[in-house]
Structure formats: structure tokens, C-alpha cells
Amino acid sequence: MRVGVHRVHGAVVDAQTRCAHWAGPLDVLAILFPCCGRWYPCHSCHEEHADHPARPWPARVREAQALLCGVCGETSSIDEYLAAGQCARCRAGFNPNCSLHHHLYFA
Length: 107
Ligand SMILES: [Zn+2]
Ligand SMILES: [Zn+2]
Ligand SMILES: [Zn+2]
Prior knowledge:
alpha+beta
């Protein structure tokens, strides 16, 4: 699925990065996985579609543009995302429950 200039992998169900696991109104966020350099909507998508275990982002690279907004197709840095919980470009809100899973993505 293409979102902006990026290609999002996994069980993507629409062009705003919703997937088979997370398809609510605020589930419009994909993450770049540092293990393979691919965008996936969620950890489960990576687990089901990648051929290797996911690696979280190391704590020292918080400036990486690793979050992709499905609403505007632009990226935010890990820092911006963790601080605001919304898109740094278009201000679209992201699912606050994602924070329950941050340990899967960010070391
Ligand atoms: Zn990977
Ligand atoms: Zn998913
Ligand atoms: Zn946005």
C-alpha cells in the first residue's frame, strides 16, 4: 500500500495505514522498523509478514523519522511522536492506546 511516497507492508487495509489488527478511526500511523527499513502499520503486521524478529529503535536515535502519518503521508521523528502523540505536520491525532505498546517499538 502506498502512503505518500512510502510503501507500507503487512496486512494494510486502507491508504491511511489501518491494518487487519488496528482499524479504528485513530489508527493512522505506520512505523519504520530499524531491522529491515520497512514500514508496517503495527508490530503484529511485522511479525506475520517479515521473516525475522522485530528490533526496537535504540534510545539514542530519537531523531529518526520513523513514524508515518496515514492522513497526510508525512513523517515525524520518534521524539516528536513520543512528545505529542500526534502528527508533527498535520496535527492528526493518533490512537493513545499505542503507548501501551511503545516498548515493542522503542527501547
Ligand atoms: Zn524488520
Ligand atoms: Zn497490523
Ligand atoms: Zn499528518
